[in-house]
## 1
Amino acid sequence: MPGENDKKDCVIGVDFGGTKILAGVFDAKFECIGRARVSTKADRGTEEVIGRIARCVREAVEECDLDLKQIKTIGIGAPGAVDSESGKVIFAPNLGWNDVPLKKELEKLLERPVFLENDCNVCTLGVYEVELKAKPREVVGIFLGTGIGGGLILEGKLYSGFNRTAGEIGHMVLEVSGPKCGCGNKGCFEALASRTAIFRKIKEAVKEGQKTLLTEMLGPELEDLRSGDLRKAIKRGDKFVEHIVEEAAEYTGIAVSNLINILNPEVVVIGGGLMEQLEDEMLAIIVETAMDYAMPGTTKGIEIIATRLGDDAGITGGAVLARKHTE
Amino acid sequence: MPGENDKKDCVIGVDFGGTKILAGVFDAKFECIGRARVSTKADRGTEEVIGRIARCVREAVEECDLDLKQIKTIGIGAPGAVDSESGKVIFAPNLGWNDVPLKKELEKLLERPVFLENDCNVCTLGVYEVELKAKPREVVGIFLGTGIGGGLILEGKLYSGFNRTAGEIGHMVLEVSGPKCGCGNKGCFEALASRTAIFRKIKEAVKEGQKTLLTEMLGPELEDLRSGDLRKAIKRGDKFVEHIVEEAAEYTGIAVSNLINILNPEVVVIGGGLMEQLEDEMLAIIVETAMDYAMPGTTKGIEIIATRLGDDAGITGGAVLARKHTE
């Protein structure tokens, strides 16, 4: 049980995604002392969604017997292009949002200062501040999930570039003649190694008669297929699923080698739902491929690791963002 | 004619390449007041090459009626992996060099302080300090020649990363299943868009019976083929050469879009011998492809330009490096 002392100086981190919203109350040591989760319901429109974020924050506060007034600041990671200075979500295709003043609206509802960043930047910030105790100067964060995003820590600080959109590593082209991506190009990293890409490949092969344990587990249409199902099928000896996941891991390794060649970070940290479920199946292949592809002399001492924060990277990073604004 | 006043406070920049060495004496306004050029003769061994660099420096100094003692510092860009702190060339495959203490040896021969950096970093530094008057905070330099290299200016400073090897953009994989690269991988940017890649494609096609004006100009073996010959053939209506150069420009555009997605620089500046000869044929395609491939919202206000420094980027950057060490 946290003592009363830990309840001073609390901040809230929010992970605002296309399907779910997580909120966590964090004490001064970045321990999570209260949390809540609600679904996003993006189809109900902007106002409803913003209301649900506020509700999620209130529930997390209530869970640890605090009052919202005791919270210093709130940090939010939002999916898409974010202008952190104006506090607007510029463009979030998964939500159907354009130019939404999220900071202002939430501050109206919650009466606390709110700070906004891109979700993958926030996750990278969380991993950097809370997990990487040695404080490497350059870190690349890669998050494998429905899509693929990234965040860059350069010279010890979150790097966002001229239009504040840096870190869009999911749309790095790895295979010009590769499969079509949601962005309209072909062969983006995201079109080759995201959960969406893996599921698409599996479903296409099944349609063409490929046998897999997944159809035994979930039926011929593979309804409600999830990353965890892939892990289960591989553990039960499904060589087809194993091969598809290995391919995604190889593409991820090539993406990592590109980032090492370009940015030469000290640490590459990989997270996201896909990685959380399939670390045992993917990480070793990612590391081996990246080390094989990167230029000689570039990889000495560089670490490629999986984050231990798992699904908490977003709320932790939100709390780090919030904390930065109390200093 | 430079007045005596301009001759105070001079530095020297050296562009040390696999085939030629250029040296330039620069005054306080970064005007080149004396220059020299010698061939590298890498096959004659390390000691001979270092002697030739020293000779080139002395010739440039003599050309502007100065004495070496009047030179404050010397800055050199060397091809390959460079440890700028120890002043060693760690690994330069084009020279066959490993772990050569170039700074120390040159300081012995020239009795002036010498500073060393990777050649593409030096070129980027030169373009940044002398050409980009608006001093954008983030710049990516791309140099297309025999190989492809790059340099990064982030937050207004040369960025080199953990092992000081950042900017190896030539070995960014763009086409996993593409042609083999000198580095051992397949489908690197360099294997798709360097002069070497273009020449290889042309020679392969000619062997298979492709007609081109180049064989009329240079004979069936295309001996002594140079970038300028491509320009001449295109100007005379050679659609085959035009197509090969367009393909290289498209790959370059995709590489630029990857770098915009990852780093979101304000300016991307393209140089190198290939670009100098084929700017009219390549730049518009590079810009169009990059803008088409980059994520929506990432390219607003971003400039993609060709450097005006041409072959002088290296000596100018060397002088900038030298000048930084007089301050």
## 2
Amino acid sequence: MNAVLMRCVAVLAAMLLQASAWAAEPLPSWQDGPSRKAIIAFVESTTRAGSADFVPEPQRIATFDNDGTLWAEQPVYFQMFFLMDRVRATAAQRPQLKDTDPTRSIMAGDIQGALASGEKGLLELMAATHSGMSVDEFHAQVLEWSEHARHPGTQRRFTDMTYQPMRELLDYLRAHGYTTYIVSGGGQEFMRPWAAQTYGIPPQQVIGSYGELAYRLRDGIPTLIKLAEVGLVDDHAGKPVAIQRFIGRRPVFAFGNSDGDLEMLQWTAAGPGPRFVGLVHHTDGKREWAYDRASKIGTLDKALAAAAAGNWVVVDMKSEWKQVYPDR
Amino acid sequence: MNAVLMRCVAVLAAMLLQASAWAAEPLPSWQDGPSRKAIIAFVESTTRAGSADFVPEPQRIATFDNDGTLWAEQPVYFQMFFLMDRVRATAAQRPQLKDTDPTRSIMAGDIQGALASGEKGLLELMAATHSGMSVDEFHAQVLEWSEHARHPGTQRRFTDMTYQPMRELLDYLRAHGYTTYIVSGGGQEFMRPWAAQTYGIPPQQVIGSYGELAYRLRDGIPTLIKLAEVGLVDDHAGKPVAIQRFIGRRPVFAFGNSDGDLEMLQWTAAGPGPRFVGLVHHTDGKREWAYDRASKIGTLDKALAAAAAGNWVVVDMKSEWKQVYPDR
């Protein structure tokens, strides 16, 4: 009984704190523009008892892409910086690769050279550097990197290049009974170690691309070993497939920023009843980056056309976000 | 604000109802034997603030096998009855199979004959009858079956052959902040349609074997189609692999009943800090079935030895359960 009462008090306290935070100003880093208004109108109409658009709490599933939607993705997806870090740390074990691309470019810190050497070599390096260790060991490598590595342009930690307005949106949705998921092309085990602290999203709500795992007794101890074999590429049509596999329910709220998110957004929009579909449009070349159709990273072309046709919400980062990154 | 207050009141009301239910008698269908005592001692010590064994709520992950652990599994896994139902319903579309086994035996209602015809033919029938339709259409078939089909021995609905003591255990764990998962060799999409109502377990916490899915536009409408290709066999070493893939955290509490659960139980037991590992032992030939080492379905041999070596809790169904199935 004590445990129940304590949990109850804790829940109440958290709710009252949250309530006072909203009373102050919901989504404070958003200008009071069309996107903020649309978000608040949707959340209120789907959570107000008696509303025609009311959505019961178990069905309040919200899915977010990560790269370019919750954190930045230029000049390359941030997992590539982790990959380069791992290549440099383990190059001594791969002497035969040191004089060939992409390893040579990576060792020289030449991102564009590494990219120019082609996708195949990079995917092989990805498989090689992300496998062979236990999941726990891999998590430790990611955490160490996320704490110390800096973005070459901003000199910020990569987790400090998450978007403050989107973090507020995650909090706002959760405070209204939504369950928030990441559905990203990035590696699931690459995101899990820092997603809880950074986004408030626990590991079971972090869905991403993943490799196969092997269960083995290592020195008699049960261990899960990461293998090089790809299990799921959680991009394009892989996203609705992963949503069904992991969640088993169609989202009522989804946010992306690129053509890789199109199928997730279509799948969300096609459900019955109220649906919210949003795109982050990177329009701020000064505070962040400005790109869409012509960019190789985060190409936004077909999804932008679909947004216009489907009346999806397109966030103009430059005019709608008061602040891009969190204050440090 | 109104929404917050309403949620708060609802949470409070649910907690008080729950609290009064426990005050009456926790786990009422369990005899006050060693298993019930061990469960209550573990849950209290891991959830009481200040306890040396306290486990923070996000880490309170409990995983349960389904066949033989949450519901019965004799004379064959219940999904086999669904398979037979589907074969009979669709035999007209497969005239070339009607005169060969296992279809011939299934059409004649001869389970043992179907089983005797070999695993390969049954797996092919499983793939054939569980694919080609949308996930929604498959769910409708499962729901229709679960509402109308009857077990040939007990004449009960299959969902009425879930174990009342285990359903109480799921409730008891959740009331103490545990998140309950199914981790079953059975089909994920076969369990999801009825698991929420029967066990209180929502689709995102139902992990099982699954086939691949294809995202397609069918008459212009985004649709997820079930394919015959196997994605994961969630049995033996597949269970800890699935736990990492879906949950990303090691359980602190796990329950199974057969050697197919051994790796999940080992993986759970090997974690640091307090861990509860339990086995349902089918010892009640009168109210249910009595079987272990020699049974082809739900073989319990190596896991029973591991339980003895590891001091796991082994539930003697005959002496420890006052009631097996729910009252109807």
